[in-house]
Amino acid sequence: MTESDSIQLSTDTDDVRKEAEELKDLIQQVRSRIDLPPIFKAKKRCFEQLDGIYDSSLPSKKILLEDNNVELSKIDSREDLMTRLSSYSTNFHLTQRPVTALGCAKHGWKDTDKTTEKEPDTCVLCCDTCGNNIFVIAIKHKASEKVINEVKKRYEAGLYNGHKELCQWRTQKCDDGVYCFPLVTIESGLEKFKGDANNIISACVKKQQALPTLCHELDDRTLIKVKYFAEQTQKEHVELDNVETAYILSLFGWELLHADIPGVKCDLCCTRKAFYLLNEPFDASRGHKSYCPYVNAETANAYTPKGFSLSRTQKISGSDWMKDVLSLEYVILIKSRDLSLSYDDALDEKIRKLQNNI
């Protein structure tokens, strides 16, 4: 290499280094304007400098991993998810939107119960972790299917990208298994079914409130089972018509709203209905949000308690799980009753024979 070539190479290297420094300064300015922290560059360490780096005063790798697990546990916290989900206002649910309240809550967003001035149907959501806001529009009725699908795709990406760069929700979301039908034993499921129905009846009797007229999709065979349970459970007469209505409500996952306010609520989809405010028949199924585990098999992630080949391959909704539990218990009760009658008949026959011999 000639001397002139060396001088040229040195000049080119200086130019590249200068451009790199200018680019570095530009990046720092941009990050500063959008409130991002500076990029830290770790110092290179020679082998000798590594001595003593594992001082006991420094956090160990295990501790750092535990800290990361704490963050992950907050991401998948059911309590935090339900707190965010319960924040969504009636205004959010009244209109069709490109994303559901559950979808937003799983990505760390909660409803501020605020709207924009120009678009009162547009809801403002916020993230408690990074403080960012996103705006969820209402889908117009005249919008084509193609436009709706395109908007939904953009919002699905926006649920991630709406967070700040260093926010934990930018790359993560709550696991789908966190929001599901709370699997219980058959026994506890039956106790809940009877207990919730009894609480609704007691509140209505106390406040002299009639049970509402219902819309439901139960077939005649299921209705017979519900009425049978109502007769077996309600041993004492109550001054209330259509007592089985309370058991139908309980079958679909509805609990008593309040001891002093006859009505129903679902803590899974955060829906509440007071009976005195109902001006039309109450739909026991569609009264839930569309994503509620009691009516949505995908989010419920439940399987029938009946034992057959499809029991662990086909998902069912929470209300279908309750129907299957009811059917199993009904068969047991009927068989027990029939056996009891057979025993009584046999005993009566034995007594008659003894009397004849005497």
UniProtKB/TrEMBL annotation:
One of its GO terms (molecular function) is zinc ion binding. One of its GO terms (cellular component) is nucleus. Transmembrane segments: none annotated. Keywords: Nucleus. Residues 77-204 form the C3HC-type domain. It is found in: Nucleus. InterPro entries: NuBaID_N. This is C3HC-type domain-containing protein. It comes from Thamnidium elegans.
